[in-house]
Amino acid sequence: MAKFAAKLGEIDLSGIRKLFEAAGSDAINLGLGQPDFETPRHVREAAKRAIDAGFTGYTHGKGILKLREAIRQKFLRNNGFEVGVEDIIVTSGASEALHIALEALINPGDGVLIPDPGFVSYFTLTKIAGGIPKSLKLDENFRLDPDTLAEEIQPNDRVLILNSPSNPTGKVQNRADIRAYTEIAKDYGLTIISDEVYEELIYEGSHVSPASFTEDVVTINAVSKTYSMTGWRLGYMGAPPDYIEEMLKVHQYIQACASSISQFAALEALTGPQDCVSSMRDEFKARRDLLVGGLNRLGFEFPIPEGAFYLFLKVEDEMAFVSKLLENGVVTTPGSSFGRNGRGYVRLSYATSGADIERALKIIEEVWVRDR
Ligand SMILES: Cc1ncc(COP(=O)(O)O)c(C=O)c1O
């Protein structure tokens, strides 16, 4: 008899982690999926105050009321939809929110439609929930064409995952397309899970939440990327009451509640001064421009990323590119880590300093471009 669950047989530990482990400590890291800034000081101070004031016990399962109120207002102000404080769950990062949403929605064998290339967790969490991940092909500009979506839907499909701005492509889907996805989802009875963790990191275009058009949406966000708080493990989700009731069952038993200290930090992040967000955004934009300009000068052509902090680059031989650069001290991520349609690409993260981006460009020129 097998010792471990068969569903895990198909799951590999993240390819991205493996690459980090193979790289030396002085490597230039274009593999990172997190901002390289410190968490803003006022947020750190709020966490210290919470510890000193003794806010170190379990909280309400859905999260402290003040934080849920701040999230409610944020959804209304920035995302154009209304939920009550009861319709919000604070989670351990967006990761937990994705997990409990899929656990609550999927029966064994149900299909989950996932833009491919897409964030690696969507495929894996779908399998853990017993569902079947189904790749949605993107066009050459990484746009999900609404007609492609409509053509791909099968009777057993239950969920559509959207992620704009996207990891790994940096694509920001436009308002008309988002509206079209919501209409299609409605016609076919699909629930949308909208992962909006890169909402504040947009350089071209603007953010549109599917929940501003339709009801059957689980909207997921986090303070992780917006406030450089990945290690605090603090995310949140808003959805109609019947969804929340079911997702809370999973949350209550796998997590109880999100970290009390991180909840106070997140409250300060969401309600305190927001200039830290715009200065991080400005810095990412400057780095994006540096990387885009450098790669163009080396003769690469690619859709210019509009958001997040990734550039998805087509290369002749993905694994040769990744290993050649790794041998020369630059970490990148193979596109195939993000689904089968990511094959033939590499993801370059610009969550690293401008000086490192320039050094990396030089190395790409020396060990890749000159050899071709
Ligand atoms: C698209 C996307 N969603 C969710 C997450 C996970 O976010 P968190 O750290 O809040 O769990 C990431 C992290 O890389 C991501 O890129």
UniProtKB/TrEMBL annotation:
Names of required cofactors = pyridoxal 5'-phosphate
* InterPro entries from the UniProt entry: Aminotransferase_I/II_large (IPR004839), AspAT/PAT-like (IPR050596), PyrdxlP-dep_Trfase (IPR015424), PyrdxlP-dep_Trfase_major (IPR015421), PyrdxlP-dep_Trfase_small (IPR015422)
Q: What Pfam families does the record point to? A: Aminotran_1_2
Domain of life the protein comes from = Archaea
* Single GO term (MF): transaminase activity
Looking at the record, the residues that make up the Aminotransferase class I/classII large domain are 26-364
Quote the subunit structure annotation: Homodimer.
* Family stated for the protein in its record: Belongs to the class-I pyridoxal-phosphate-dependent aminotransferase family.
This chain belongs to which protein, by name? Class I and II aminotransferase
Q: Which organism is it from?
A: Candidatus Syntropharchaeum caldarium
Output the lineage of the source organism.
Archaea, Methanobacteriati, Methanobacteriota, Stenosarchaea group, Methanomicrobia
